[in-house]
Amino acid sequence: MGNKAIYIYTRSGCEESQSLKKYLSRDQIPYHEIDISRSHDLESELLGLTGTTITPAIIVDQRSIFGKKKRAVFSGYVTNKSNIKRVIQ
């Protein structure tokens, strides 16, 4: 996990956000949570990154062995569960 940074955009009351956090915590996968319900600016940031305000949104930044940065972006946990697991593990 050292070459990956995981950011999750959540909203209070969002069941999928809670499910994603439980999954990440259960498997001891470190992440940075950004709760967009606290700020309109954060919601705008999410919209700029993903083109939507659907939560949870998962952004995985990773570096290859050559230092090249790659980003994976997912909107929604349930519909992207298998792809998210593949990217973060």
TrEMBL record:
- Domain Glutaredoxin, which positions? 7-65
Q: Which Pfam families match?
A: Glutaredoxin
Name used for this protein in its record? Glutaredoxin domain-containing protein
Q: Tell me the organism.
A: Pontibacillus chungwhensis BH030062
